[in-house]
Amino acid sequence: MLRFGQNAAALWINSTVFAILLFLPLTLSATSPAIGALSPTSGGVGTLATITGTSFGAAQGTSTVTFNGATANSIVSWSDTSVEVLVPLGTTTGGVVVTVGGVSSNSANFAVGTANFTLTGSLATARNFQTATQLNTGMVLVAGGADGFAWDALNSAELYSLQTGAFTTTGNLNRGRFFHTATLLTSGQVLFVGGVDSNFNDIGAAELYSPLSGGFTLTGSLIDSRSYHSATLLNNGKVLIAGGVDSNGNQITSLAAGGELYDPATGMFSSTGSLNAVRSSHTATLLSNGKVLIAGGTDINGNALCSAELYDPVAGTFALTGSLNVGRGNHTATLLNDAAK
Q1: Is 169 helix (H, G, I), strand (E, B) or coil?
Q2: pLDDT tens sequence across 140-164
Q3: What is the DSSP string of 184-226?
């Protein structure tokens, strides 16, 4: 008997039976994704970037796109040869990589440029005190607001396209409103809560906008109507409504100061804990630990508040935390990449 090779193949020759048995090791390998081009190759956070290449997969699934390590969460479109994505927060100059099934592509360089402003398309209807919400499609939904010093509440809505730089009209709100909130849900729909009408009466009815149909539908109503409140999407998919002003234009009472939770599964609002300090025009920021930081705002007399609170979704309670050095209302709050801050 003769034997040739070790791991690749074996050949046996017998005096009475001539047989060739070929054993080859079986190797399974997926085709690696490959980036052919990136456009543009520079820009700022929110820039629409198009990645062309091969083997990206027909759908995103668990695949990811990273910009120098920062994961892009807003994917506009995905196909086997093209991915459209918005440059994520925290991006620094470096390589863009597409990872499919744990296999990473080659890197294409993207430079983060200096921020600047340029004119773009104009609204179909001039408005103020509206909301602007970026949808999962990359488009921006602008809805409601007032038509100026006439203070007539608008029910119209528009969509801004990053590709064309133009606004187009979409469905109308069931209730014209301003001083309201608009929150993108995990389903891709947008929840509109509270606000005031043309007579400055607070609105209890909430609505959902569907990007698929382009229409608004009524959903559950607030337990306590309010405006100048906050609305924060929690990690469990529910929305925390906190603080605000009551329907008489005064600071909400201790009863109405109670927080509410909107459950997309039921379309209903339910009570949760109460704020320790009644406030409006504050900020509410989802932290990396799942809690919500409520900071500042104004009290019943319009005084700026220094106090801050933490909402715990597990316990359903608010607890005081460290205070601001300077009281403020109608301010902003931004979660930093540093997990300790």
Answers
A1: strand
A2: 999 999 998 889 999 999 999 988 9
A3: E-TTS-EEEE--B-TT--B--EEEEEETTTTEEEEEEE-SS--
